[in-house]
Design brief:
The chain is mainly alpha-helical and 454 residues long. 80% of the residues lie in helices and 0% in strands. It has helices at 3-9, 15-26, 29-41, 45-73, 77-84, 91-123, 133-144, 147-166, 169-196, 201-209, 218-231, 238-243, 252-280, 290-303, 307-341, 345-359, 361-364, 371-375, 378-416, 425-453. Helix 2 (15-26) crosses helix 9 (169-196) and helix 10 (201-209) packs across helix 13. The longest helix has 39 residues, at 378-416. It starts with a helix and ends with a helix. Residues 1-7 have low confidence and may be disordered. The protein binds tryptophan. Tryptophan is lined by residues 25-26, 28-31, 104, 230-231, 233, 236, 238, 325, 328-329, 391.
Length: 454
């Protein structure tokens, strides 16, 4: 590839720029919404512990594998597999990733739209004064079953995502994540301090951080691993794509380490907001799903001193976290269209974004907007198929490809560029060859069994 073509693809301005962009991708609704939900439904602190192990042993391994693959090929996922093993079915894994990205984005952006809608609701005082649980439920039902409102905010999220992606790697993704990520960090620390100083916070903390090992079972381990893939943006080529813009002189190992660490830190901090706040309101630990962020939280804000500000900032946080993730999801198909089909970025972003919007229509109508999609819980179904199974399949094949087809030796050679020592080599090789694929196969079998037996 000549220099001209390289500069058209784009590249990060620095290692820090990559870390901002990749943590921006990783940190999202998965951390602030899905992680606390998982914790509350899977035994509290035990889940937290297993989750940290899953990130360290498997998530980090897959992330380093994806970054290495991407930087070596300097291409989108389809191009990367094709570059290393031309004219083989391996590129199908790349296509699966692109499809998965579009499908995840299609429902993710709907939920991000709810967060934006609730930002305006809270800011304008909808939850001021005496709000009862019935009222809070009703406000959410009215909002989420109103196609006009849902589509309006869904369209805004997609529009912003298309706008940022069309500006390119440096002037789009890099520029905006550098603005949004510090904002996110300040918001989350502020909210955690507020939550930790609420009366009753201690009770929430003990549910969250004191492990009760009697709650440990296979399901906890499986959910933890699935959550790790989703939260770290693994298994569909986001990190292959972001890795393809990394300079050859950067250290991939420390980059993967920073991203995994920051993502986990933010998830843990989100728990420090959610659980004390739940305890303050006397809610049981196990509330989750849309009920948590959109029904229970507004209720609590209405009871809390300064709740309107706290609530507004909470939904601002959800929105900011989501946008830096939606751009990373759209970047994958766009990189493919730019690299492999020679499309302009503008055209690619517009078309991929528009198609995603169309695919998102059933999800947007599945919370009351239309009976059929509501009944089959279309959004939830998509979340399991694409946000869970498809990512696990992708991650499995990425491990197998890097470990056995491309080969650990060649991958290590790529890692050595920027990290000549690579002290973690034996551990990483063991995990990418044996531990990670085995764990993923177990997760997949269990998931499929669960679906079949209902
Ligand atoms: N990781 C993001 C979150 O936690 C969501 C996300 C962005 C994602 N890109 C991804 C998930 C790629 C899986 C794959 O909210």
């Amino acid at each position: 590839m000549d220099g001209q073509q390289l500069s058209q693809r784009g590249a990060w301005g620095s290692k820090v720029a990559f870390i901002f962009a990749a943590t921006g991708s990783a940190i999202g609704l998965g951390n602030i919404w899905r992680f606390p939900t998982m914790v509350s439904q899977n035994g509290g602190a035990v889940f937290v512990l297993i989750y940290i192990l899953a990130v360290a042993l498997i998530g980090f391994t897959v992330m380093l594998a994806e970054l290495t693959l991407g930087r070596h090929a300097q291409k989108n996922p389809v191009g990367a597999f094709e570059y290393i093993k031309p004219h083989t079915p391996w590129k199908l894994i790349g296509y699966l990733g692109i499809l998965t990205g579009i499908f995840i984005l299609s429902f993710y952006a709907v939920v991000a739209g709810w967060a934006l809608g609730y930002f305006f609701k809270t800011a304008s005082g909808t939850f001021k004064g005496k709000v009862t649980p019935e009222m809070s439920n009703q406000i959410f039902t009215e909002f989420s079953s109103d196609p006009i409102q849902v589509f309006f905010f869904f369209a805004i999220i997609m529009g912003l995502t298309i706008f940022i992606i069309s500006k390119g790697v440096k002037k789009g993704i890099e520029k905006w994540t550098k603005i949004l990520m510090p904002m996110l960090f300040i918001l989350i620390v502020f909210l955690a301090v507020r939550a930790l100083t609420l009366p009753g916070a201690g009770q929430g903390i003990s549910f969250y951080l004191k492990p009760d090992f009697s709650k440990l079972n296979v399901a906890v381990v499986l959910f933890a691993l699935g959550q790790a893939f989703f939260s770290l943006s693994l298994g569909m080529g986001t990190m292959i794509t972001y890795g393809s813009y990394i300079s050859k002189s950067d250290n991939l190992v420390s980059s993967a380490g920073w991203v995994s660490f920051s993502d986990t830190l933010i998830a843990l901090l989100a728990g420090l907001i959610i659980f004390p706040t739940l305890a303050f309101s006397g809610q049981p630990g196990s509330v989750g799903g849309d009920a948590l962020a959109f029904k229970v939280f507004p209720l609590i804000f209405s009871e809390m001193p300064g709740g309107q500000i706290f609530g507004t900032l909470f939904f601002a946080l959800l929105f900011v976290a989501a946008i830096t993730s939606t751009i990373s999801l759209l970047e994958v198909p766009v990189a493919y269209l730019v690299d492999e089909r020679n499309w302009s970025r503008n055209k690619a972003a517009l078309l991929a974004g528009f198609i995603t919007f169309l695919i998102g229509i059933p999800a947007a109508l599945s919370t009351g907007g239309m009976e059929f999609f509501t009944k089959i819980n279309f959004l939830g179904l998509f979340a399991i198929i694409f946000g869970n199974i498809s990512l696990a399949v992708g991650a499995l094949f990425i491990c197998i490809f890097v470990a056995y087809i491309w080969g650990v030796k060649k991958a290590v050679k790529e890692i050595h560029s920027g990290n000549p020592r690579f002290n973690l080599r034996p551990l990483w090789a063991f995990s990418v060859k044996f531990l990670s694929p085995a764990a993923i196969i177990i997760i997949l079998i269990t998931l499929i069994k669960k679906i079949i037996t209902g």
